[in-house]
Amino acid sequence: MIPYPIFLSVVCVLRNKEKLCEEIIKNLQDQISELTIDYELIIIDNSSDDKTVQVLKKLTKGPKAIENLQVYSLTNEVSNNIAAWAGIENSLGDYVITINPEIDDMNFIPEILKQSIPNSDITFVINKFKKKVNLLNTFIMTIFNFLSKILNQPKSSNKDSNYRLLSKKVVNFILNYPRPSIIYNNLVSVTGFNKNNLFYDYEYVEKKKKNSIFRVNETIINLISKNRLPIRFASFLMFFGSLSNLLYSLYVVLILIFKSDVAPGWVTLSLQQSGMFFLISLVLLIISEHITNLSYLTNEGPLFYIGQEFTSENIKRIKKLNVEDLNNNNIDN
């Protein structure tokens, strides 16, 4: 097989794999070392509390150190997506593959490259294997998909995987955002790049259950990070509340003017309550709009980014860069 003329980065997130990390890394190296002309292995230790870091450190030292190995150890445990992004933003490759060796088939990497290079900027690799149902995650995803449908966001799936390939162009695009990990989580909603979906069937046994707290946090962030309708809806409620209380105050004044048998103290109490709720609603409306504005300022990316560029193969103009026409010079002389 002729190696691909690219520099490939492979990002792998590990946690508490003291006994398996060396085997995993060597298997990855064997899989990709002959596929490209150059490569790097980036291992992210997701704040392991065993001796995984010490083992990884040994693999980078001495004459038997694993070739092209980079190790980054996180100070606190984060979700797999965020940990993977920590590796991606430190990668140098023309293409980056993120893989979880516990649930992803590393033997599928050659097929990913075959189906992606050079025509795909983003490739999502989806495992069709039906794992054991996690009722909590299923419930969370059901709610998330329902809200996403209301907010016109792309539907997520329990089959979504962190197994994906990104071109350097996509990585540079994501880096333009103040919080790039959010954009990385929402790549399915990003347009302008060539995307590819690959499906395969790989049976695996997940040895450790995912932290459902991370799952809930990611779901909430994904829901609100790319769509401002929730906070706009809150602003609408505040506006409706303040307007309703203002109209109610006018109603109380009209009752006072045209009615003679008003209960003592009712007008004062009603105006006090409606005025108080009017001010509260107005203040919350201003705060809501201010938060919306801050959201625009803190997580907006560049005004534009060129995802693809095409040039006609039939260009008739003559290019003259630093070229002197000697014939004309001779004629002038």
What features would you describe in this structure?
It is a single chain. With 333 residues, the chain is α/β, with parallel strands linked by helices. The chain has helices at residues 21-32, 52-59, 80-88, 109-116, 135-150, 168-174, 180-185, 212-225, 229-258, 266-299, 326-332; strands at residues 4-14, 36-45, 69-73, 95-99, 122-127, 164-167, 195-200. Strands 3-2-1-4-6-5-7 form a seven-stranded mixed sheet. Helix 2 links the parallel strand 2 and strand 3. Helix 5 (135-150) runs parallel beside helix 8 (212-225) and helix 9 (229-258) packs antiparallel against helix 10. The termini are far apart.
Strand and helix map with partners:
Blueprint: E1 4-14, H1 21-32, E2 36-45, H2 52-59, E3 69-73, H3 80-88, E4 95-99, H4 109-116, E5 122-127, H5 135-150, E6 164-167, H6 168-174, H7 180-185, E7 195-200, H8 212-225, H9 229-258, H10 266-299, H11 326-332
Parallel strand pairs: 1-2, 1-4, 2-3, 5-7
Antiparallel strand pairs: 4-6, 5-6
Strand proportion, as a percent range, falls in: 5-15%
**Major sheet attributes:** 7 strands, mixed
What overall geometry do the principal axes of the alpha carbons give? elongated
| SS-based class | alpha/beta
Q: How far from one another are the termini? A: 59 Å
Number of helices: 11
